[in-house]
Amino acid sequence: MRTRHSWFAAAVLGACVYSAGPARAADWKTDQDAGWKAYKEGRIEEAEGLLKSAEKQARAFGAGDPRLAVTLDHLAWVYCAEGRCEEAEPLAKEALAIREKTPGVDSATLADGLNTLAAVYDAAGKAAEAQPLYVRCLAAAEKAESPEGAGVAAAIDNLAAVDHALGKLDEAEALYKRALAIRSNAKINDGTSIDVTATLHNLGLLYIDQKKYAEAEPLLKKSLTIREGALGAGHPDVATSLEALGWLYASQGKPAEAEVLLKKALAVYEADLGKDHPHVARCAGELGRVCLAQDHQDEAEACCKRAVAILEKASSDPRELATALDDYAAVLRKLGRGDEAGRLEEQAKSLRSSIK
């Protein structure tokens, strides 16, 4: 499964004085603040509507207005959460361009823009394009705050996630541990802040990849516990934690335990993100694998077939579709349908060869 990002909370600029009329500025700020709050609380569809309204108002302020950058930045996050990375990319690029051209822009604001565009690339499976942006983001964050600051920890965590995706596991582990040390610092919080969950989660996934299962489990369980307490059981980040823990058990050869967690995660994703979201597809594919491991062939086929159908329409990452095709092929081979399986495997191979 893919790692998840930390994010910078982009500064809301409504407290400043602008030339636009006060009524328009107030309307923008109301929709902007409400939309970002909805996004952070997992109400993605509501967030999109509010931020689109804020974007319309912000464009009336002028093409280079910093308020427009804030809204475009946040709307890009919403589109990524909806699996619409191709639509998020031009918004993130425009927001960053505005910030880079703003005279006297502060390092923290620049870091926000760099982080968003990098995260869009990463979510689209373009880790190599995300990596240099995250390097710049870390440099800007270090300039903006102390080495122990929350923004620095987030930038380190995101850079680690890209190294992880690029297969640089030793570098990623060192960065995750550095981020975790900052986020667990008693001077900042008691080690149970929601911010620390991203690093706990990502380091746990790295340990799964390294087959260090005993080290992964307590990290993933702690992340799940904190997220459930802070966000509620129906938040998509809670589903991500359930999915990761389920994948851990599947990797350990415990399919029955994995199935329970993956079904819970799938239900949350469907309720919050919709039945055709790429996260639903990924989780359904994983559920298909654990069902196949228990010889629940009909359920395995249904899950894997669903994952492929969703990703053929919704995914911007060819690696995700290739994985889903291979999972479906494995089920078909178990069912004695080798010709169909072979065609899917060739399609998956072709997709992987197309990745730069």
From TrEMBL:
Statement: the UniProt record of this protein carries the keyword Repeat: yes
Chief location: cytoplasm
Keywords carried by this UniProt record: Coiled coil, Cytoplasm, Cytoskeleton, Microtubule, Motor protein, Repeat, Signal, TPR repeat
TPR repeat placement: 197-230
Keyword match Ion transport: no
Signal peptide: 1-25
Family to which the UniProt record says this protein belongs: Belongs to the kinesin light chain family.
Designated name of the protein: Tetratricopeptide repeat protein
